[in-house]
Amino acid sequence: MKKLLTILHISLLTTALFTTSQAGNTVFYALTPNGGTHNKGAIISFTPATSTESVVYSFADGTDGATPAGSLVYDATNNLFYGTTQNGGAYSAGTIFTFNPTTNTETVVYSFGNGTDGQWPSADLTYDAADGLFFGQTMSGGGNGDGTMFTFNPTSKVETDIYDFDGTLSADVSTDFYYDATNATLIGIGDGGQYAAGDLFVVKPAVDSIIDLWDFGNGTDGSYPGVGPVAYDATNGLIYLAMEYGGANSHGAIISYNLSTKAENVAYSFAGGTDARGVGGALVYDAAKGLFYATSGGGANNQGSIFSFNPANNAESVAYSFAGGTDGSAPVGTPIYDATNGLYYMMTTTGGTNNKGTIISFNPSNNAESVVWSFGGTNDVSSPSASFAQATSTTGINTVSNDVVSVEVYPNPVQNYLTFKFKDAQPGNEFIARILDITGRELANTNYTVRQNSNTIDVSSLSAGIYFLSLSNSQEVIATQKFIKE
Q1: How far apart are CA 392 and CA 3, in angstroms?
Q2: Which of 326, 371, 409, 469 is least buried, going by the fewest C-beta atoms within 10 A?
């Protein structure tokens, strides 16, 4: 059973987090555990082109969710975001909900806490396009009371507990998965392990099994892994992860792990002082720079920092130090890239005009930071603690009109060149062909003139996994085909 579970935070050297968005069409969404009309948390939107933030949904508690956890995950097939809340729902133990960015409508689709069910989900959901399931984790509940790993079927709304954590392997797991397409497994990080300082584990969804790969915290090893998922470097076969503590200087570390040899290595130890320390989000790869970027504590003003890490030589550098005050401080979440202006966007939990946190932009070309929004105004949210997500097109990628009703895509699976052929279009019609990942993120954008013979796209640089070929005219998406990259 071949699977691809994609998470918005995944950092791949082959595809990276770079997106291709139409000018003015970029809109980011995020969860905040505080604020909103009922002060139970909210969903916000942010438009980089206008530097405008809006509260688009306020959680109400009760049978609705409250205190949203993690980040939103976009399902491009039906134009819905999925997310979780730690509280609220029918059993007051958290929910799974959907959010429609076109109508700003939220719907609780599952309530945790019934019987030996898991309680208090705390990590992003991970979508399995092959089987149409979400994977997720809870911090408590289950057969052992130490949390669960579960699947959720968005069609039937059925949740299934597939693994009960026992406190010795990975208790209180609170981070996301990375999908290893070569071995059809998920890589997760948790807070348990032999030294009670976190661990790296692998999940085999086909047989619902979990295997410990590495226990952190031994000697000068890193300890307490930060926000996941891990970042994979396809050029050397290593995964990277930032650690909150441990390392040679006890200020945290960046570790690498070889999936083939099962060897772990402390690639960099944070030095303390004006260096970064700890971690605020997952590592994200900038292909143009050949660097990973992440948010962290420390920095020259001890108000937090953005640092870069070079996997070619294991060199780390503080790219920006937050100043506090009207500048942000305590950055959180994983940077997200806006290809329309070449800037990263992220949030801070404090600082800004109202000292309730900020949205900041970061320019990797000159390491310049700018506060583009201060939280805490009237009816606004405060102290965000998650990452942004993006819906590339709020019309949905499965919208079909009468212009093109049938498209043939081959070979599928594909290794290098994907060919698509319009069966019903007339020669000379012009359409746009885009490659999307499972979150709806655009990876390539090329104009094609439709012909009765075949059209070819080079997809050799894509990582193994499931993608969509989306075809549109000047007004709407007119056809979509799924393909598998080997």
Answers
A1: 23
A2: 326
Whole-number pLDDT of residue 370: 97
Q: What is the pLDDT of residue 305?
A: 96
Residue 424 domain boundaries: 407-485
- 368 and 465 fall within a common domain: no
CA–CA dist 251, 270 (Å, integer): 5
Choose the final residue of a domain: 364, 390, 416.
390
441 CA to centre of own chain? 11
In a domain, 170, yes or no: yes
C-alpha to C-alpha distance for 433 and 84, rounded to whole angstroms: 33
Q: How far, in Å, CA of 327 to CA of 303, rounded?
A: 10
Please count the structural domains in the chain. 2
Q: Cα separation of 5 and 127, whole Å?
A: 5
**CB-based burial label for 423 (10 Å; 0-12, 13-18, 19+):** exposed
324 and 449, same domain (yes or no): no
272: left (phi over 0), alpha (psi -120 to 50) or beta: left
d(CA 302, CA 321): 8
Walking along the chain (486 residues) 10 residues at a time, the average pLDDT comes out as 26 27 67 88 94 95 89 81 94 96 95 92 74 83 87 92 72 58 72 84 71 89 81 78 92 91 94 89 80 92 95 96 95 86 92 95 96 92 85 35 57 86 60 69 61 73 77 64 80
How much is the pLDDT for 239?
87
Distance of alpha carbon 264 from alpha carbon 213, whole angstroms: 10
Residues 378 and 454 in one domain: no
Q: Which of 214, 161, 208 minimizes the C-alpha distance to 190?
A: 214
Backbone φ and ψ for 120, nearest 5 degrees, come out as 60, 65
Residues in the chain: 486
Compute the distance between CA of residue 215 and CA of residue 347 in angstroms, rounded to an integer: 31
Q: Are residues 118 and 66 in the same domain?
A: yes
